[in-house]
Amino acid sequence: MATVQVELPPKLVPIFSGQADVRGAWGGRGSGKTRSFAKMTAIRAMMWDRAHREGIILCGRQFMNSLDDSSMEEIKAAIRSEPWLHEHFEIGEKFIRTKSRRIAYKFAGLDRSMDSIKSKSRILLCWVDEAEPVTEEAWIKLIPTLREEDSELWVTWNPESKRSPTHRRFRESRTDPRVKICEINWRDNPWFPSVLERTRQRDMRDRPDQYDHIWEGAFATVFEGAYYVKELIAARDQNRIKAVSVDPLLPVHTAWDLGIGDSTAIWFFQVVGKEIRVVDFYENHGQGLPHYVAMLTVKGYRYGDDWVPHDAKVRELGTGRTRIETLEGLGRKPRLVPNHTLQDGINAVRETLPFCWFDAQRTDVGLDALRQYRSEYKEDTAVFNDRPLHDWTSHAADAFRYLAMAWREMQPEKPKEPPKDRVVFEIVDGQLRSNMTVREIIEAKRRKKAMNG
Predict the structure, then answer these.
(1) What tens digit of pLDDT does each residue of 401-419 get?
(2) Is the full-model pTM beyond 0.85?
C-alpha cells in the first residue's frame, strides 16, 4: 500500500502515536474530535484488514435507541471524505465493513446492551463517543470485554460535571503512560468552519453563561430545568463564591438531610446579621449518626444548633428512639426545621441565596448539587415535571432547603413600632394651633375624674 497522508488536528497527533490502552479527547463544540476519531477507527480497520486480522470495532454510547442515535453516520462521512479509504469499505444503510468482511462495525447503547456486549468476541477497538453520561457500572462491565492483547478503548466527550464517572476515570487518573487523553477545543481545529465561527460569536454575545461549557470544554453551570440558576449565577458574578473564613467567635450551625439507608448531607453556616456564611459541606452514605457526629468533632468548629427535618422525631423500628434523641445522646443540639411544603422550601432557598457567601473549596460538591438540582423531565409530554428529579443532587438540595427554613426561624422579630399618638388641633383667632395629644387629653380627664371623687 502506498503511503497516505492523514490530516488531524495537531493536538491529536500524540494521542494516536505509539502504543496505548486508552486514547481520548474532551472539549467543546467544533474541535473536530468526533470526526477525527471516526476517521481513525476506519484507518485502524483498514490496517487490521490488510494484516488479515478478524474482529469487531464496537461503537458505543450510553443511550442509543436506534442507529440514528449512533456514530454510524459520522463514520460513513469520515470514510467517504478520503477516496483511498472509501474504496476499502462496503457501506450499507445499516452496516459498515471492510470488503473482505474481516472487520465489521457494531453499534450499541451501553444502558441496554451490556449483556450482549459482554458476549461479543474479538473486539479489537471500542470507541465510546458522547461519553459524559456513561455510568461507572457501564465502564466496569465494558472495559473487561476488550480481551485482545492489542485491543484499545477510545473515549470522546464534552464535559458536564466533575462528578461524572468519565471525568474521574479519564481526567483525574492521569499517571498511566498507556492512557493518552487531551483537551481539544475549537481553536485547536485548523478546519474550524466559518458557519460555526458565526455561531460561536453569537453564543458568546447572547449566551455568556453557557458559552464556556459549549465551546471551551468547561463544566456546565446552567442546567435545563434547574431551580436556582439565576441565584447561583448572581452569587458567582457578585464574587460571593470564594474563600470564606470561619469566625471563631460565632457559632457554626448545621442543616441536615438525614438519610435512612441513603445519603446524609450537612451544610455548615454562620449568620452575621443578614449575611449567611456557608463555610462547609459534607455528604456520605451507609453510615450511622455516630459517624457524622464524629466527623463534626474532627472539623473542630464551635457549634450552635443542628437543624433537622420533621421526620427526625419519628421513632426508628430498630432502636425505638427518634433520631433527635440519638443526636442528643451524642451531645448534639438538634432543632426541628419548621414544617413546610416542598414548594415553600424551594421558594425559601431562592429568597435565601442572595444573602449567602459560599466557601468555594469546602462547599464545592454541595454547590455542584445546587446547580444541577432540577425538575424531572417527562419524555412523553416534553415538559418539566413540578417535582424535582431524585438523583445525587437531592440530599444536598434538601439539606439546603432546611438551612433556608432555619435561617428564617433564626431571624429576630422586628420590634413593633410604638403607636403613633394623634395631636388635637384647635383654631384660635383664625390660626391653626396644636393643643394636647389624644393621650394627654385622656390622662387629663382621668385626673379630673379622680379629683372630683
Answers:
(1) 999 999 998 876 555 565 5
(2) no
